[in-house]
Write a structure and sequence with these properties.
This protein has 257 residues and is mainly β. It is built from no helices and 33 strands.
Length: 257
């Protein structure tokens, strides 16, 4: 357990300048800030370990020193990343070298957002808030993903970007609002389940899918999911791209745009 400290460092070279390696442990009441890297994970790089961010753990104001690298905030490679109550990932990425995934990127690993965790005000050219590639387990429950923004000429998945094939990723009782992107401002997903009182509110897409953009494979939207005041030229609430027959949209969700 590491707690009650502020880690601020910038070397512009090592991946995950403040915290890097096969990390296994818990961070509490800690601020990781000022990371600047030419590689992936400017703030934290988890390589096959298990990292838990608990109460008042913050990864904020980290950025890249080279273009198109992954995760200005937290990079998880085949490990376990969990955001607990009171943790936040915020204000990562800037326009000088836009990252691919602003707040966090997790590939071939496990990712969990617990109630009370937040990802907000991150910037990227794809997956500004949370970007997941082939998750093997995980969920987002009772969290907030907001005010994340795609910048640059194009880019998709403002709040949440999920690319999953063999595992159905669940988002439940979560607020996704005030995010911006070209496609899928609130979320762009493959193979996902949205249920509980999940709310898509005031997200803005410049092409399609203001609230939610379904890109191929299967999505399920059930149990009182709300789409409110989202904006897009096509599909202000939901835009379904391919394999429409596999997409189930329950009668219990509602549009209030």
């Amino acid at each position: 357990v590491i707690k009650n400290i502020c880690v601020e460092i910038s070397d512009g070279v090592n991946p995950g300048s403040p915290l890097f390696g096969t990390v296994s442990g818990t961070l509490e009441n800690i601020i990781i800030t000022g990371g600047c890297s030419t590689n992936n994970g400017a703030g934290v790089y988890v390589n096959s370990g298990a990292l838990y961010l608990n109460s008042k753990a913050s990864v904020s104001y980290n950025k890249m020193a080279a273009a198109s690298k992954y995760a200005a905030g937290v990079y998880n490679n085949k490990g376990t990343l969990s955001l607990g109550n009171g943790s936040e990932i915020s204000y990562n990425g800037d326009e000088t070298f836009l990252p691919n995934a602003g707040g966090l990127y997790s590939q071939n690993g496990k990712f969990y957002m617990e109630p009370g965790s937040e990802v907000h005000h991150n910037y990227a050219n794809s997956g500004a808030g949370v970007k997941l590639n082939k998750p093997v387990d995980g969920y987002i429950h009772g969290a907030k993903i907001y005010s994340n923004e795609i910048r640059g000429a194009s880019g998709n998945g403002g709040g949440l970007f999920v690319s999953s094939t063999n595992f159905v990723f669940e988002i439940k009782d979560t607020e996704i609002y005030s995010n911006k992107a070209y496609k899928g401002a609130g979320a762009l997903v493959q193979n996902a389940l949205f249920n509980g009182t999940t709310i898509f509110k005031e997200n803005e897409a410049y092409t399609g899918g203001g609230g939610l953009y379904s890109s191929d494979l299967e999505i399920t939207v059930t149990e009182n999911v709300v789409f409110e005041n989202n904006k897009a030229p096509d599909g202000s609430a939901i835009y379904v791209e391919n394999k429409v027959a596999k997409n189930e949209l329950s009668d219990s969700f509602k549009f209030v745009n």
